[in-house]
Amino acid sequence: MLTTFLFSALSIISSNDGIIERTQDSSKNKSWVYGADFKANFSLANSSPNWTSGASNNITITGIVNAYAYLKKNKMSWDNSFKMNLGLIANRQSDIFGEGYWSMRKNIDNLFVDSKFGREFPEYPSLSIYGGLNFQTQMLNGFVFGKDITGRETKTLTSSFLSQGQTQLAIGTENKFGQTYYVRLGYLALKQTYLINQNLYLIRQEETIARVKKGQFIDNEIGMQVQMGANKFLDANKIFSMKFNYLGFIPYQSKQALLDSRIDMSILAKITKYVNFNYTLIALFDKDLVKSGASAWQNSWVFGIGYLYRI
Question: How far from chain centre, in Å, is Cα 173?
């Protein structure tokens, strides 16, 4: 996962836009900055059974949470972020007998947590040495879908919570460019991939999934981590905003110079204080997560109009 081009819900912007300095003690040169965004998208589509153009009746619900907490004390800092995306689609289908039923699927599902301790260099306030940990997994079971002889939907389990899950621990240097951009280089990083649900080996008929061998639960890789992030308003009135984050990892012992990558991007346009247009993208590049010969790029995205509450 290459460079986390700035971490999504943790950017520092003005208090009018959701980032508020909650606690400050000037005598101790210590301050906390924290807050959260809660977004919800909902859509409903329907048509009559005799609609000749063809249609699909469905209900879509998506929830997004971006939370952050930063502590700054003298030359020390502690930055934390939490991001959760979960979306479900209920689709109305019919079997060969014309009987209707609802099919429930995910359209996005991801949990991401990042925590970093840093210490600034006295001569270069924008440069610091850091130690960081990030964690990611899906929350709900993942399935491959098919049809049985009656036209009813079937599903086969392919993944679940912590299967696969992943953590990265890194030590390196960080450059901050104001309150908008940052770049981290983790010269020594440990990437750990988890596969806790051992039933997946039997269901998928595979001995190794995401580098984790059957019966071992976890795989370790040593390499270099790259992270970058940005949080920008795209107009003077602060109606349009973009958050872009990148996380990359390249193993030192790899025979191929492939950079495992994760890209998070969100674009938001305010309509009112609580209503907005929004686009959220999660893209992954990791050959270990797919079968041989399949594309290593995976992505999941949501575009919609929804409700935004900010604290």
Answer: 23
- The answer for residues whose C-beta is within 8 angstroms of residue 293's C-beta and 6 or more apart is none
pLDDT tens, position by position, for the chain (311 residues)? 333 322 233 232 222 333 334 444 544 567 888 999 899 998 877 766 666 555 567 889 999 999 999 998 988 999 999 999 999 999 888 899 989 899 999 989 999 999 999 999 888 888 999 999 999 999 999 999 999 999 999 999 999 999 999 999 999 999 988 778 999 999 999 999 999 999 999 999 999 999 999 999 999 999 999 999 998 888 888 899 999 999 999 999 876 667 899 999 999 999 998 999 999 999 999 988 887 778 889 998 888 889 989 88
158 neighbors 143 (Cβ within 8 angstroms): yes
Q: On the CB side of 68, how many CA atoms lie within 13 Å of its CA?
A: 22
Give the domains, in start order, of the chain with CATH numbers.
Answer: 2-47+55-310 (2.40.230)
Distances (CA, A) of 294 to 24, 25, 29, 298: 52, 54, 53, 10
